[in-house]
Design goal:
Radius of gyration: 21 Å
CATH superfamily of the largest domain: Type I PLP-dependent aspartate aminotransferase-like (Major domain)
Shape: globular
CATH topology of the largest domain: Aspartate Aminotransferase, domain 2
Pfam family, one: Cys_Met_Meta_PP
Bound molecules: pyridoxal-5'-phosphate
Helix content: 25-40%
InterPro entries: Cys/Met-Metab_PyrdxlP-dep_enz (IPR000277), Cys_met_metab_PP (IPR054542), PyrdxlP-dep_Trfase (IPR015424), PyrdxlP-dep_Trfase_major (IPR015421), PyrdxlP-dep_Trfase_small (IPR015422)
CATH architecture of the largest domain: 3-Layer(aba) Sandwich
Number of strands: 12
Protein name: Cystathionine gamma-synthase
Keywords: Pyridoxal phosphate
Organism: Microlunatus sagamiharensis
Amino acid sequence: MDHDLDLHRDTLAVSLGRPTRTPGAPLNVSPVLASTYVGAHDTTTALGYGRDGNETWSALEEVLGTLEGGRCVTFASGMAAASAVLDLLAPGDTVVLPTSCYLGVSALVRSRAEKFGWVLREVDVADTEAVLAAADGADLVWLESPTNPLMEVADLPGIGAALRGRVRTVVDNTFASALLQRPLEHGFDVVLESGTKFVGGHSDLLLGALSVRTDGDGADELFAALAAVRHDSGAVPGPMETWLALRGIRTMPLRVRAAVANAGVLAERLAAHPAVRRVRYPGLPSDEGHARAAATMDGFGSLLSVELADGPTAERFVDGCTLWTHATSLGSVESTFERRRRWSGELDVVPEGLVRMSVGVEHADDLWADLERSLDAL
Ligand SMILES: *Cc1c(COP(=O)(O)O)cnc(C)c1O
């Protein structure tokens, strides 16, 4: 089917990634459970083996790549996707990494840096001058915005424009998702999304995706290189997971919109509660990232962090809630939260009493009543 790419993202999420319309045929692509395909003598045109390609992957990649404004390769998980980007580096390369970002990514970069003699330059992503200075002579600039779990916001348009064509750049777009923020449009080379989060949206699968621009500038070679890493490393998504993610992405605009609206309501109420020391949410006018997020995002996201007095207080807070679940991960229909410092690897810059909250799509008043009851009891 030919698609008018001027359609709204809500429409694209529903209409792309469909089989050719054939009377009597299903509307949906099925989970194609195939490790091998009937052989062709010309191996350049037909799929041969399960690592080469899969119709279910292609359907999801069409939808997600288009929403990101590029072309997509899916992986077994967000970390498999991150690993594929790092696989393109050589020993001795220089990598710019946020001081505070998704722990799995920073741990992976650090362990590989040690093994392969990479030079690491750590930057505060909100400090644009520091990012640009660190990028000078680097081989890879890795950014995340908003960051986990401090919710810092980078100037993506400014950084993207300054670095385009100078150094390979990656933005981890998992917290915002393609619906709220599109780094490829700002000139970044690669966008990572953990499909485990908003794309799947139901806490029932792991999946990752990399999207790359379509407008030349080495983008075709980059896309081919990342697809080759997936093929050769075998970090392929399972067809069932891919199919669940495809099903999930149909309602992603509805879910994200509802969750963002809830997060806005809860951020304000939390900020007004005496037990809460600070709310980190770019949607609050008082937040350091507010102006940037307002200028570049289509909504402020459904993640926020609250700071309570100390670790034990934060633990009593999460234990006192019954509707919210204390669990890691984010971006699902159900509201979850976690005290980040329970992880031994979490950075010292993250306060002991910080609780990261992933707001779901339940009714905001029910979510608030649960939080308020627990806060009042502290
Ligand atoms: C979850 C997450 C990842 C890793 O994705 P997985 O699918 O869990 O492997 C990377 N970055 C961010 C920001 C995440 O939230």
